[in-house]
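Researcher: Predict the fold of Protein RER1.
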Amino acid sequence: MENMEGDGPSTAAAAALNQRKHELSKLFQYYLDKSTPHALYRWIGTFVLVSVYALRVYYVQGFYIVSYGLGIYILNLLIGFLSPLVDPEMEPSDGPVLPTKGSDEFKPFIRRLPEFKFWYAITKAFCIAFFMTFFSMFDVPVFWPILLCYWIVLFTLTMRRQITHMIKYKYIPFSIGKQKYRGKRPSASPRSPRAD
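Model: Structure tokens for Protein RER1 follow.
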């Protein structure tokens, strides 16, 4: 009987905590959904966060290993952002695939990692990295120019492979401007046959 009395308040507290956590999660998701159509403002906010992180790392003169890990993670996200959902090299598909010839039907480029998820993952990664800069256990002493050179080599090799893949399968992961319907173009009026 003592156990039942002791479980009552802790169960109620756990339920209240779960309810509050659920409400905060719904509120966060609501504002995340509201930000979806505002891509420019989302990216501006992320670049502000990146600048704050860069200033923090520059100011404390450390946490280079955290920055290197962040760079590798962002490179991995970038590859997903630039890659098609269905890679013709890896898995043949019965559904829509990338056109390989000029005469093939146009099929829109569908990313493996959509823009919103790309932005969200990068923003979350910078928030976590910024938080890590407040704990000295993550400040592993390294010679940062070596890490920078290694990351540049890794970036170059990875992008070369990605660009080769784009050329081979003839796709461009970016659309410059929104395509607009222009309607029928006026054609030259046909000659009227002469009356005899």
